[in-house]
């Protein structure tokens, strides 16, 4: 088998390939987008987690200073510095994280564990609004009165009975910077602590003006007036984007490819078949077989039905049942029907040029929808021997689906003098409705109704014949194989019949050329 033949079914049209490519591109792009969105969510979640962790760590530091400060230093409040200087130094050392502790009286810091007696108004740290300062309790400063460029977190613990008196603790920024920088290990790039309007980042850089950090995730403390903003490091973000973007993108591409492959695999056999049919037409692999249609009363042939036959060079004889339905749903049926019509008319002209004989051809609904179909048939009929003509057979199942278009086509055919037959009558529902609505000349009873010679079968057949005759239709019974069936037809008044009993379908020469076909007045004149 040539490789060309092997891949025959895969030669899809450029539009199919383009659509497939688009499907792959769209699924991949969508998956990439979904992947990026997911990665961004992970980045946001990580930032929020780090921010909340850092807030909790700083809360723990402040709470420790608060607790230990209240226990060891606060009781010294209000006492003269000369008296408490030494115990203050000693007790300050019990308080973790604190660089210094100092006592406050009348809103003035008067005694420091680091410097002894001093005089610094509380407002130096907390601003003029000391009432608010007492409420706020903590402040982030860039320096202290005694140390330049040494940011610190300052905590004020006022005494419950006298708020202008209390203790101040300076928490070293080193602890805070360490805590902030810890977030870097979890993918954070920038971690900034803000207290009021002051801010300090993981490198210890202090700003006293509010500086919004773009794209940051913020976590606020519920215990203290502080917040922590976190921005993931570019390396962490791009790693997640790359990992999930690529991963989900690859899944999208795979799904797209699977969808396209599925479509192509499902469509390939059909395309292979259609291609083989087209090729078969070009290579003259098709021919027609004819079966006489006889008058039941005399057994004289009054017409023939043409059946398509396909002899494939590799697959052998292929019955129409295994390909015609697929072909009928595509434009290829136009080529098939055109071939059948021309071949049938040629055979008629060649083998029985002087006989008045009707030849029936099976036609698909798609043929009826084609503009010019009726005109083409009329021209063919005009080229046939005088008295002979074409009969269009259409299977009833197709008609009802497209009532309007079928009716229009039938009218045009009727006008052109072409006769119409409903094929396989009884195989679907709504038969009666269809008989009433379409201008048929013949009704062909399906084989399944002519096989049953029981009383029930007879009754059914009899009623079909009565109904058909009521609508002035000539009844043709299909699939007659036995004398018993023939006798039944005669009994119930069927006009014509075809079947193996009279003649199996055979070549044009055998059926039309050997004198078997009789000249007739055509029962269809009835
Ligand atoms: P159909 O038009 O109802 O044709 C009758 C089928 O019954 C034919 O089969 C015929 O060979 C077969 N047949 C005739 N007498 C007997 C009998 O006594 N016993 C049995 N068991 N069968 C009998 P075929 O040729 O295989 O065609 C099958 C169907 O394929 C046809 O049903 C028709 O619907 C479709 N078909 C055939 N040729 C064409 C064509 O040229 N164009 C289109 N569109 N369809 C066609
Ligand atoms: Mg038929
Ligand atoms: Mg039939």
Shape designation: rod-shaped
Compute the number of helices: 18
Relative helix content: 40-55%
The overall pLDDT, averaged over residues, is 87
Number of strands: 20
What binds here, in terms of ligands, is: ligand C2E, magnesium ion
Question: What is the CATH architecture term of one domain?
Answer: Alpha-Beta Barrel
Reported for the largest beta sheet, the result is: 8 strands, mixed, barrel
Euclidean distance between termini CA atoms: 55 Å
CATH fold field value of one domain:
TIM Barrel
Q: Any idea of the CATH class of one domain?
A: Alpha Beta
Enzyme class: hydrolase
EC number: 3.1.4.52
Membrane topology: Multi-pass membrane protein
Keywords: c-di-GMP, Cell membrane, Hydrolase, Membrane, Transmembrane, Transmembrane helix
């Amino acid at each position: 088998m040539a490789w060309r033949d092997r891949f025959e079914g895969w030669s899809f049209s450029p539009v199919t390939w383009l659509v497939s490519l688009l499907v792959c591109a769209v699924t991949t792009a969508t998956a990439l987008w979904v992947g990026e969105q997911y990665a961004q969510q992970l980045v946001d979640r990580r930032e929020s987690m780090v921010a909340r962790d850092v807030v909790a760590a700083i809360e723990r530091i402040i709470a420790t200073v608060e607790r230990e400060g209240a226990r060891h230093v606060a009781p010294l409040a209000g006492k003269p510095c000369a008296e408490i200087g030494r115990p203050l130094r000693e007790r300050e050392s019990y308080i973790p994280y604190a660089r210094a502790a100092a006592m406050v009286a009348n809103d003035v810091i008067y005694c420091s564990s680091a410097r002894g007696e001093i005089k610094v108004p509380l407002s130096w740290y907390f601003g003029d609004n000391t009432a608010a300062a007492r409420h706020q309790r903590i402040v982030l400063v860039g320096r202290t009165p005694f140390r330049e460029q040494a940011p610190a977190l300052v905590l004020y613990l006022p005494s419950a009975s006298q708020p202008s008196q209390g203790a101040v603790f300076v928490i070293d920024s080193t602890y805070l910077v360490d805590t902030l920088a810890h977030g870097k290990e979890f993918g954070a790039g920038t971690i900034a602590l803000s207290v009021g309007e002051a801010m300090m980042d993981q490198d210890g850089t202090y700003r006293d003006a509010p500086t919004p950090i773009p794209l940051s995730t913020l976590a606020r403390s519920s215990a203290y007036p502080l917040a922590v903003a976190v921005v993931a490091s570019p390396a962490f973000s791009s790693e997640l984007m790359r990992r999930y973007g690529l991963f989900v993108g690859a899944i999208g591409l795979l799904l797209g490819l699977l969808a396209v492959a599925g479509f192509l695999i499902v469509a390939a056999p059909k395309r292979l078949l259609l291609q083989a049919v087209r090729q078969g037409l070009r290579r003259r692999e098709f021919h027609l077989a004819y079966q006489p249609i006889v008058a039941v009363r005399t057994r004289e042939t009054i017409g023939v039905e043409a059946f398509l036959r396909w002899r494939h060079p590799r697959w052998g004889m292929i019955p129409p049942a295994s390909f015609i339905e697929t072909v009928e749903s595509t434009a290829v049926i136009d080529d098939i029907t055109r071939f059948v019509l021309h071949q049938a008319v040629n055979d008629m002209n060649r083998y029985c040029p002087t006989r008045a004989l009707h030849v029936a051809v099976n036609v698909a609904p798609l043929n009826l929808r084609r503009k010019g179909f009726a005109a083409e048939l009329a021209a063919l009929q005009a080229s046939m021997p005088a008295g002979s003509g074409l009969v269009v057979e259409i299977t009833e199942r197709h008609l009802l689906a497209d009532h309007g278009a079928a009716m229009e086509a039938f009218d045009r055919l009727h006008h052109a003098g072409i006769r119409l037959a409903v094929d396989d009558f009884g195989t679907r529902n709504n038969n009666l409705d269809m008989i009433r609505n379409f201008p048929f000349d013949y009704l062909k009873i399906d084989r399944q109704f002519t096989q049953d010679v029981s009383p029930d079968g007879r009754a059914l057949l009899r009623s079909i014949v009565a109904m058909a005759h009521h609508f002035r239709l000539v009844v043709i019974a299909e699939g007659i194989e036995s004398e018993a069936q023939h006798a039944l037809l005669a009994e119930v008044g069927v006009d014509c019949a075809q079947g193996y009993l009279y003649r199996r379908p055979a070549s044009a020469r055998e059926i039309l050329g050997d004198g078997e076909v009789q000249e007739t007045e055509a029962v269809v004149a009835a």
